[in-house]
Amino acid sequence: MQTSTVAANRIQVLLRILKHNKYGIRNGNIRAYTTNSNVTIGGVTKTIKDATHPEYVPRDYYQEDQGQSTLHHLRWMMQKDLLGQDIFLIGPPGPRRRSLAMQYLELTNRELEYVSLSRDTTESDLKQRREIVNGSATYFDQSAVRAATKGRILILEGIEKAERNVLPILNNLLENREMQLEDGRMLIPADRYDDLLKLYSKEELDRWKLVRVDKDFRVIALGLPVPRYTGNPLDPPLRSRFQARDVTVNSYQ
């Protein structure tokens, strides 16, 4: 009896040490719970909406036996999503950053638009492309425009490779939720569009070529730490648009 009491006391002392140590090791684990209507990770809950186009939702990325490091990252992403903030996952080369983004989209049933940035990425790759259809030029919306108007999540991979000519477009889209399109339309944030809709009719706004950016539109940027790796350091204005998180390999905790 005395031996068990001593052992219990030692365990309690050890738990107190782990709880208050400077490395932030926690004695409690977080769990993920999913239902048909919501998903909860470590006390953070998000309502799940039905996808308009289920084929745009990633599949077979999320597994039930995820480690604690992954669950902590997913909970942090859910918190930023609920606050309406864009996310920047930064880490070493490898599939972990993309895998985390895909797991979050699958877990929350969100539709995906994907853009891989490179030195050759131009404005047309983000906004619109002009193609010849039946002898006439027609504009086709690209991933960034489709994500903004349909309320999807836009994944920008390799953001450290973005050239200076596309940074103003990204800055305006991230900060103001605005974008001037080649066909004359103008993307404007949802709040401003709704205020105009109280004063003018939908037909008038369509005649002015104003397009509403969905409130559920989010951006998840994936990048490498520069200058440790090859790339362009992010401009402070662009860097300030994101809530960043260092996504390294799984920690011991």
Overview of this protein structure:
This protein is an alpha/beta fold and 253 residues long. 35% of the residues lie in helices and 23% in strands. It is built from nine helices and 13 strands. It has helices spanning 2-20, 68-82, 96-108, 123-126, 143-150, 167-175, 190-199, 202-207, 236-239; strands at 32-34, 38-41, 44-47, 86-90, 112-116, 128-133, 136-141, 153-157, 179-180, 186-188, 210-212, 218-223, 242-246. The strands form four sheets. It has a five-stranded parallel beta sheet with strand order 5-8-12-4-13, with helices on both faces. The chain has a three-stranded antiparallel beta sheet with strand order 1-2-3. The chain has a three-stranded mixed beta sheet with strand order 9-10-11, with helices on both faces. Strand 9 (179-180) and strand 10 (186-188) form a beta hairpin. Helix 2 crosses helix 3 (96-108). The chain is globular, with a radius of gyration of 22 Å. Residues 21-27 have low confidence and may be disordered. InterPro entries: ATPase_dyneun-rel_AAA, P-loop_NTPase, VWA8. This is ATPase dynein-related AAA domain-containing protein. Residues 86-242 form the ATPase dynein-related AAA domain. Pfam families: AAA_5 (PF07728).
Break the fold down into its secondary structure elements and pairings:
Elements: H1 2-20, E1 32-34, E2 38-41, E3 44-47, H2 68-82, E4 86-90, H3 96-108, E5 112-116, H4 123-126, E6 128-133, E7 136-141, H5 143-150, E8 153-157, H6 167-175, E9 179-180, E10 186-188, H7 190-199, H8 202-207, E11 210-212, E12 218-223, H9 236-239, E13 242-246
Parallel strand pairs: 4-12, 4-13, 5-8, 8-12, 10-11
Antiparallel strand pairs: 1-2, 2-3, 6-7, 9-10
